[in-house]
Amino acid sequence: MTFSERLRNHLTQCGVSRYEIAKRSQGCLSQSHLSQFMQGKRGLSLRKLDVLVSIIERAVSSRQ
Q: Which of 42, 43, 54, 63 could form a disulfide with 36 if both were Cys (CB 3.0 to 4.6 A apart)?
């Protein structure tokens, strides 16, 4: 399983909507970009990956 596939799985499991991720990213990630990433049509830059992983980590830690 690739890193992108694992990240897509974590995004699905963390329970945060694409809208909420876009909102929390403060303009770094759009819903459209996230949708294309989730469909495997587009990749993410390192900056966007950093932002996305940070959002996922906060979502997971707040649920524990």
A: 42
Residue 64 has pLDDT above 80, yes or no: no
Label residues 7-22 b or e (16+ Cβ within 10 Å = b): bbeebeebebebeebb
Token couple for 31: 């819903």
Span 25-34, pLDDT tens digits: 999 999 999 9
CATH number, domain of 28, equals: 1.10.260
Total count of domains within the chain: 1
Enter the pTM of the model: 0.82
